[in-house]
Design a protein that fits this description.
The chain has about 120 residues and is an alpha/beta fold. The chain is about 40% helix and about 15% strand. It has helices at about 20-30, 45-50, 60-70, 90-115; strands spanning about 5, 35-40, 55-60, 75-80.
Length: about 120
């Protein structure tokens, strides 16, 4: 299934980046090995976002963007921003709950778009 991950701001750090490490841990938990990445700062995002059956947003700004600034509100899985500065990451059970909700969302989207 095609999955688009939308973030808030691109990171300037490419090596030893804890935000990227957290994101890859979450994608592994979700059993997603191939995804597309986009950023809300991309001016063309609203033109191609509807081509993806499943969307995951990282952080509040990305979730607000998908609901208000794209051409129409789209169902998506909203995860907290994976930055270590995010205090929500201190609560491991809350993160696990977010990820389990996302697994449920992805299964429903897969069943909706990929019926035999």
């Amino acid at each position: 299934m095609r999955v688009l991950v939308i973030g808030e701001e691109p990171s300037k750090r490419t090596k030893n980046n804890p935000t990227i490490r957290n994101l890859y841990k979450w994608l592994d938990y979700l059993d997603l090995h191939i995804v597309s990445f986009a950023n809300i700062s991309d001016p063309d995002l609203k033109y191609y976002v509807h081509n993806y059956p499943a969307i995951i947003t990282l952080g509040r700004k990305a979730s607000i963007w998908i609901n208000h600034y794209s051409d129409y509100a789209m169902p998506h899985c909203a995860l907290p921003h994976p930055s270590p500065r995010n205090r929500q990451l201190n609560d491991k059970k809350a993160i696990e709950a977010f990820l389990n909700d996302c697994i449920y969302f992805l299964r429903r989207r897969r069943d909706l778009f990929y019926r035999p």
